[in-house]
Amino acid sequence: MVDVRLENVTKRFDDVVAANDVSFEIDEGSFFTLLGPSGCGKTTILRIIAGFTRQDEGDVYFGGEIINDVPPHKRNTGLVFQTYALWPHMRVFDNIAFGLDFQKKLGKEEKERKVYDTLKLVGLEGLERRFPSQLSGGQQQRVALARALVIEPKVLLLDEPLSNLDAKLRVQMRTEIKRIQKRLGITSFYVTHDQEEALSISDEIAILNNGAVQQIGTPRSIYEDPNNRFVASFIGLANFLWGGISEIDEEGLTATMKTKEGVEIYAELDPDDEWSNGMNVISSVRPEAISLYKLGSAPSEVNKIEGSVRLTNYLGNRVRYEIETGWGDTLRVDIYNPRHQHVYKEGENVLMAFDSKDVKLIRME
Fold first, then answer.
1. Order of strands, edge to edge, in the sheet holding 155-159?
2. Backbone dihedral angles phi then psi of residue 147, each to the nearest 5 degrees
3. Is the pLDDT score of 362 beyond 80?
4. What was the pLDDT predicted at 103?
5. Domains of the chain and any CATH numbers
6. pLDDT tens digits, residue range 96-153?
């Protein structure tokens, strides 16, 4: 296995900058995900790593060696396509063995052993004689994964491999992919636009927008500490309130942010960041961080905003409310385990409350 590094990689297609000075490093044996909206340049970067697309600027490293001029078939990568790309006229066994015929000089017995070992790894024992048309979507995806793994690649590349599956099967397959990756310890680069998918399987995530990396970190650090508004809004849901810092305490650990409507919001600050009075900021609060109370209650949270329930959505494990504030903005609130909670009706007046530690201040861009 090797580590992968991109340094200042840029790729243009006429006037479109698909990759804009992209730099990141994938640790050996880790699962790294590139996450972003459709058209932001994710697949272009994957193709650059695979060698199918040549960057205009910057360098790609495998294990400390520049591979800019190494052709795709000599990079020893396994690629799982979004569309599976299985040969319809070949049986499962031959689809999986296809790469071995080109990259490995193996005897018949060793070739069969590798194919059957990989079939077992992906849970397809007994299906080796079937054609792709005789398989379900999930089984076809497993064949595509097996074909990429059987050649024992140094790096596994996965280009939105679950996007053609239904929701329940996507959850099952992403769990399987993570299990197999951890078992093999293979360096993996995964491209997706699905936030939940990225959070659930990744060791590290890079958020991409308009070809540029916005933030790199662990799933938890990116979700809990987004460094700009795009990241906060793209990863999960977030409520935003605009205003300015009106006061910072002596230790610099908390700040009072006053919204343009005059509402005071208290937030804890990262002591490593620089903040000042009068700085224009956005306060971001996740829906699950907000509690709901009946008017007249005295909750312990320091931040309190009154509102009226505009919409109630029952989602099984939670109820999602849309609460209209007195100044016309709408905040979203997620209350989990609704069996044991009071469910508020549309039109009911409520009090929203949340702690200062759940407020993330973001500088105005």
1. 77-80, 155-159, 187-192, 31-35, 204-209, 212-217
2. -60, -35
3. yes
4. 61
5. 4-232 (3.40.50.300), 238-363 (2.40.50.100)
6. 998 887 766 778 888 889 999 999 999 999 999 999 999 998 899 999 999 999 999 9
